[in-house]
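hey team, just a heads up i'm posting the complex here instead of the shared drive bc the drive is being weird again. everything in one block, sequence lines first with there labels, then the predicted structure for the whole assembly after. its two chains so it's a bit long, scroll down
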Amino acid sequence: MSESGIIEIFQNEAREILDNIENDLVVLEETKSSEVVNRLFRYYHTLKGSSGIAGFTSISEFTHSLESCLDLVRSGKISITEDLISILLQSTDWIRGTLFEGGIGEKYDTIKNDIFTRLEVIRSGEALPVSVVADKIRYYRIKAAFAENIFEFGIDPLIVMEDLFESGEVVENFVDRRKLSMLSKLDPEKCYFSWRVVVKTAKSIDKIKEVFLFVLDNNEIIIEDITSEYVENLDEKRGEKKLGDILVNKGIVTERELEDVLNEQQKENKKIGEIIVEKGFATPKDLNTALGIQDDIKKKIESNTVRVDTMKLDNLMNLLGEIVIGQASLNRISEALDEEQGYRLKNALYGLDRITREFQEQIMSIRMIPIGPTFDQFKRFVRDMSKQIGKDIRLDINGKDTELDKTVIERISDPLKHMIRNSIDHGIETSEERMNCGKDSQSVISLNAYHQEGSVFIEIKDDGRGLNYEKIRAKAIAKNIISKDDEVSEEKLKSFIFLPAFSTSDSVSDLSGRGVGMDVVKSNIDALRGTIEIDSIKGKGTTVRIKLPLTLAIIDGMLFRVGNSTYIVPLLSIVESIQPKKDDVKTIKGKGEVVLVRGEYVSLIRLYDFFSTSADHTNPWESLLIIVETNGERLALMIDDLIGQQQIVIKSLDSYITQSSAISGATILGDGSVALIIDIHGLMSGLKNEKVIE
Amino acid sequence: MKELFFSKDAGIKNIKQLKNDILNALNEDSEIILNLSNQRRLDLSSVQVICAARIEAKQRKKIFKVSGMNNEIIKQFEICGYMKKGGEK
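-- predicted structure starts here --
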């Protein structure tokens, strides 16, 4: 593998590790959990190792210091304080900067030195009795190689080893007896045995050292705390554990017997288990138990996930799209065939369609990833922001396992962050204000995700002051959006929040208040074919609910024709299709051409005009109208004919083909022709902008 | 078959004696049983001699068995990586 390949793999790995570290640091600050300390230690340890391999020596050295610091936390020598967490969080920033932003030079050195200085202060500070490690299970690896003449000193190493075995649960015991010869050649006054033992215990390393107190001199005694790297039932290489080793470790077969078996295996080429049973070293039941353990180990080793380049997934999806298009072509061909042949082909295609759909679902499921990591990244954000502005805020996260298309997840992060920032800055009151109105001084922002009716819902809920409709109304009047006399519903007032440069904040803070954001949030969500709605109760809090499609790659669409061109509208946007009466079509000043649909005037769009194409009819009452809706607003699209509904594989269009916001992509139809997919929201926004320009 | 009894004061002081006793027994018989029933526990030198005796017996195609082990001795053999749990070997 090339050096750049190694670096890329490391960067991807490091990104994940840093995300995990950040989340766990915030969790640690709250929970002081020893489990989290251990996990963090492992993250730092992995980061240290892989950064060294990838050639990022400075990161390797840096993480080594952080790892040492975590070790002090584990051993109870330093306590988990807000300061410590802040420094460790800042450390992740430094690593990120160094790794992804080419962070070198004086600035980064200064930050690093500052981190080290602050860590040193914490290290040298008064150690508080933290219960983090009090009852923590640790793993120690002990290598005990006794001097040959140890018996001369009146010491029996077996007593020492018995003491060790009593200090905890021995999960590995390897006795090296290779020096032992046959009895006739043995000097029985010499010691030949040495041990390598892994002990699982709640005792401290000092307690383990005490076991060897009288044999530390002249003997090779090495005691290591391997808690961070040890995985029970796995060997050091974390590779597959051999059946023989399991049987020996379980005490079913002795090492000598195993040696015999291995020798015989070389001669007879039989399975090791078979020989063991044949020789009577173990019963078939023992063997099955060992095989079960081996399976468990394999499962632990073999990760259930593989890292796949997303490009490959996209390519797979594109290829599937081609299959769908091919099927559509065959469907068309079947229509041209005589009845019997057409029937047979259609039948065959029906079966193929079933498999294709299943195939599609499988590929889609690969693209689906849980929203948990996206939610988790806000833990630090909320922590830092709330401390910055002096509010006591807790972030609750629910539905972390809810899965969304990878692309949706990538694009939802920024809008979520903005809304959380809004909650922190505007929605949540200060602790004092909250206590004055009888609320808990600590406020809660909840992030929740769930599946419902084929869509994914994400909620951002706070228990703050709720929307101030009076303020919104006043701002709308000040901005000439409404007049003083207009009676505007709360629903309408809420929609103003999403207008560009609309902010009710009296002051502009570092966090928000410039009125830049909610319109962008809405645009981003619209681009994901999602919707956003707000529920707010004054004094109780606000809930922002985002509805998103499960995937962006395939939609159910309605095909229709305008002149010789075929277009598609997402089925979800369609309310109905009608043929209007001549009298229902009118032109209203300032609104343009409208059509009366169920008592309400709806803007009429002549698509042939909009797309500069031809049409069978130019009179709306001779054409069909598709009534579409987005964000509570309706449009009537004038078309020539409905073709039918179909699953559509969306192909994106490069910006040099079209920059129109009214087109969200294209698809290839069964006959090989291309149909444009109309983005109703984009179309509506485009029309509004045109009006503004007029 | 010859049954050997472990001396009550077995240990490093008398380990050479134990070695010789076993070797003599192996020279005389094809099957030796070392009875440990009068032992509460063993020291490492004794364990080593017993293990070396097993190797010796195997080389000579003779049988060497150990009997009369209490739980503590079984545990000691486990620590030395020899015993099957339950103490059958």
